[in-house]
Design brief:
- The chain folds into three domains: 12-57; 69-162, DNA polymerase, domain 1 (Orthogonal Bundle), CATH 1.10.150; 178-357, Orthogonal Bundle (hpI Integrase, Chain A).
- 46% of the residues lie in helices and 9% in strands.
- The radius of gyration is 30 Å and the shape is elongated.
- The chain contains 14 helices and ten strands.
- 24% of the residues are buried.
- The longest helix is centred in the middle third of the chain and has 20 residues, at 132-151.
- A three-stranded antiparallel β-sheet has the order 1-2-5, covered by helices on one side.
């Protein structure tokens, strides 16, 4: 046998009959390390060595640890996602991971995870009664995790992207017309939280943004409202935190009607309006919307009040968040450019404004089709010989 070349490994047989070798490989930290491999036969060991050399030639680093899916999910949540997403999102991810993803595929080796493995896991979840929506959410979480594993060069592909997705038709969001929104506001005019509903429908603000709004966030002299914090319940506590995205941090015009209602609201609550503060700290103190104790209002309390008022007004039942959809659709019907609507609503992407928040309405459809009919048939005279019964 000739001399071994640089980087080649010694192959030898142990007294127990197994063939072993200890090649040098490049780890993810860039350092070279000797690893131990073994096989029942010499040919099997040589085959393993060839795979290792091919990986080295492709400059794909080796891992210190052989990850399984459930362990990597824990690492990803703890070390990556906890620094990137909000507590509410972390809770949602944790439920999906612990209840569904781990039981269905947590024991698989991450590096060897296949399309077949994921497809089988989806089948298990379906048999357990998981809805198509839940299965899609599980795939979304697992896909994000695998994308991170690819960035860390732990796996070479994201198999979730190759799996056929469950068919899911989202429920249509029910919204109010502008007339129905007006009826609601008229019926809620004497309610202590009226100003909250007025802001939600006028500006399409998020519930937490309205609850987090303070008088020090409003520049009455220059007619501007600064949206820069929101109120949420986190781990059982009412807390102020930053708004959802960078685009959510926005400045809105203070129109005369809203200005008047804000001043009236302050007078009714015997509130001394503080001066405008350009850079205030986030706080639950000084919010415009307060509960009976005078502290920032519990988000669920606003929902309860809204449901009761809508029912009393005889209006279709919608969610509080649907008022944001209503405002977006009214903006569309008024001919407001989509870019302006996006900035008013604080969306990061204009596609979100178009595809999710702005809805077609029967009245706009009727107007559009009537215009088409007028263009096509306006020159025709006479009546049809037969009319439908």
């Amino acid at each position: 046998m000739g001399r071994r070349g640089k980087g080649e490994s010694t192959v030898y047989r142990r007294s127990n009959g197994r063939w072993v070798s200890q090649p040098f490989v490049t780890m993810t930290n860039g350092k070279s390390k000797r690893i131990f491999i073994s096989a029942k036969t010499r040919d099997e060991l040589i085959s393993k060595l060839r795979e290792i050399h091919e990986q080295e030639n492709k400059r794909i680093p080796f891992q210190e640890k052989e990850w399984v899916v459930e362990d990597y999910l824990d690492y990803w949540m703890r070390e990556v996602q906890s620094k990137r997403v909000r507590e509410t999102t972390m809770r949602t991810y944790s439920v999906l991971i612990e209840r569904h993803i781990k039981p269905a595929m947590g024991g698989h080796k991450l590096r060897d995870l296949s399309v077949h493995d994921v497809r089988c896991a989806l089948g298990i979840l379906e048999e357990q009664g998981c809805s198509a929506k839940t299965r899609l959410e599980c795939l979304r979480v697992l896909s994000a995790c695998l994308n991170n594993a690819m960035r860390e060069e732990i796996t070479q592909r994201n198999v979730v992207q190759l799996v056929a997705k469950p068919k899911y038709i989202p429920k249509k969001t029910v919204i109010w017309t502008a007339e129905q929104a007006g009826i609601f506001l008229q019926s809620a005019k004497d309610h202590p939280q009226f100003i909250a509903f007025l802001l939600l429908l006028t500006y399409g603000m998020r519930r937490g943004e309205v609850l987090g709004l303070r008088y020090c966030d409003i520049d009455f002299d220059n007619g501007l409202i600064y949206v820069r914090q929101q109120i949420d319940r986190i781990n059982g506590r009412i807390m102020a935190r930053d708004v959802k995205t960078e685009n959510s941090r926005r400045t809105l015009p203070l129109i005369p009607a809203i200005r008047t209602e804000l001043l009236n609201h302050a007078e009714r609550n015997c509130t001394i309006i503080p001066p405008f503060d350009l850079n205030p700290d986030m706080s639950t103190e000084g919010t415009i919307i307060v509960g009976k104790t005078g502290r920032a209002l519990e988000p669920k309390s606003l929902v309860r009040s809204f449901d009761i008022l809508a029912m009393r007004a005889g209006l279709p039942r919608i969610k509080v968040h649907a008022m944001r959809h209503t405002a977006a659709t009214v903006l569309k019907d008024l001919g407001v450019p989509v870019k302006d609507a996006q900035l008013i609503l604080g969306h990061s992407n204009i596609i979100t404004t178009l595809n999710i928040y702005q809805h077609g309405t029967p009245d706009t459809h009727r107007t559009a089709i009537s215009a088409v009919g007028e263009r096509l048939f306006g020159g025709l005279t006479g009546q049809p010989k037969c009319l439908p019964a």
